[in-house]
Amino acid sequence: MNKYEGMFLLDHGRLKNEPQRGIDEITAILEKHGAKVVKIGRWDERKLAYEINRQKRGTYIMAHFEAPIEAIDEIHGDVKLSENISRALIIRLGKVFPPFMTATELETEFGTRDFRDRPGRRSDSRDRRPAPRQQPVAAATAGETPSAPEGEGGSDDKGSEG
Fold it and tell me: Which end of the chain is more exposed for a tag (fewer CB within 10 A), N or C?
């Protein structure tokens, strides 16, 4: 059996006051598919980056568990069918489980990440725009000056002769 870490986002509208019901549902789904739950708990409640199912906040549940590899797709399937779980991310770990830390404990130990020192505005899309195309410059031969195409001369030509 492989070791996994799962992060589950509970529907805040349904389980705002009772996250234990969500933890019990996640535990039941994991055990239904032969997983052995090592540790499960409330990780944090946070404002979401964007609305999910018309919810602006969510409660995150972290779980460490051992399961056969073929059970992961079945677990994802049951999570998608659950009305109480909005999202789930399950990753396979190495040989040992990392320390089980809540978001507050992580921020205390490692500090918060602050990207405000990056150059440019936050809405700046310079990295996403393709570079402007440059036309190759023809090398002028010695003594020749490039001439302007007809009709684009430097004189004020308004159609009158003289």
Answer: C
